[in-house]
Amino acid sequence: MKRLIAVSAVLVSLAAGAYVLPGGSILRRMATTREEKHLSAFRVEGSVIFSSTGVAEAGAALNVPTDRPELQGDGVLSVKVPGRCRFDASSPDSSLKSATVQVSGRKRVEGKELPAVSVLVAQVCAILAQDAGSVQDTKLAQEAYLQGLGINTKVTSLARFGGEVAYVLGDPAEGKPQFWVYKDAFRPARLRYSDASGAAWDVRFVDYASPSTGDWMPRTVEVWKAGQRVLRFTALKADNRSAVPDKLFTP
Length: 251
Hints:
- There is one protein chain.
- This protein is of the alpha+beta class.
- The protein has helices at residues 2-17, 23-35, 53-62, 115-128, 135-148; strands at 41-51, 70-80, 84-90, 97-103, 106-110, 156-161, 164-169, 178-182, 188-194, 200-206, 220-225, 228-239.
- A 12-stranded antiparallel beta sheet has the order 5-4-3-2-1-12-11-10-9-8-7-6.
- α2 crosses α5.
- The longest helix is centred in the first third of the chain and has 16 residues, at 2-17.
- 38% of the residues are buried.
């Protein structure tokens, strides 16, 4: 036991003394990593699972029974860089569909809105489909967006997420707005913020080493609200080479 305590103390000491990059450098490297992928459009098909309060919302939007702890359906994410994103949600138990479309920050909904889907679309568009023309401009645009969510990008620290070390931009205290970036790969890991109504959201980008998405898109995107997961989108098939039709983003 004494040995374990001593080892833990050393680890804490090393972590405390580790050099942490400033927020601007982290965002610049993240923008560089993204630019190297040369993404102009991509489409991701997969399964979507609604849980917690997301069950009732999905049941109402898709007209399916909600007498179960989770609802599973199909999801399709379509993206054209920069800033055009769409998510289509459907259920095998219903002919109804729900889609959220965002173009240059403006949202449009087809069918009944699914709040968790709207959050997913907004943050995927802002974090994964940002391209302001150059690495520096993209970095500045990303910085401005995060600051708009209340994140202090000048404050940085280290933490662990999913077994990996991540940079944390923002006040490290629990419940504060934060943006997490995987330390070794400089890919987005997590975004925590509160919306205008005060609802606390936590969007998580998990597993960039999947055969279905490669390293340009996380295999799983989760949306949490008030500490409970309300949506999980898991990619089963992804394509970043074929064209994504413009008509998907127009009324």
